[in-house]
Amino acid sequence: MLSMDPIAMIADRQRELIEEASKARLLSELPQQPSAVRRELATVCFRLAHWIDEPAGYVQMPDPGPEDWATPWASV
To answer: How far apart are CA 38 and CA 49, in angstroms?
Structure first.
């Protein structure tokens, strides 16, 4: 039979409620709307990353030409 100490159960429950209230208090202190500067910086970073990653953008990818796999082994 499982026997639990009622005092320990109450103490555990009280600790859980205090932690939950603390988390709720911290969440209420966060700003509801993100700052405009932070949002614009994220937009600029996103656009820059897209511009760099785009094949025809910042870096021109070389055209794949015919490859001769035997040439590196011919000198061995």
So the answer is: 16
- Residue 48 is assigned to a structural domain of this protein: yes
Query: How high is the mean pLDDT of the chain?
Result: 79
43 domain residue, yes or no: yes
Task: Check if the beta carbon of residue 52 is closer than 8 Å to that of residue 59.
Answer: yes
Q: Which domain holds residue 46?
A: 34-58
User: Six-digit token pair at 21?
Assistant: 């209230």
Q: Express each pLDDT in 4-13 by its tens digit.
A: 888 989 999 9
Counting the structural domains of the chain, the total is 1
Q: Is the pTM of this model over 0.85?
A: no
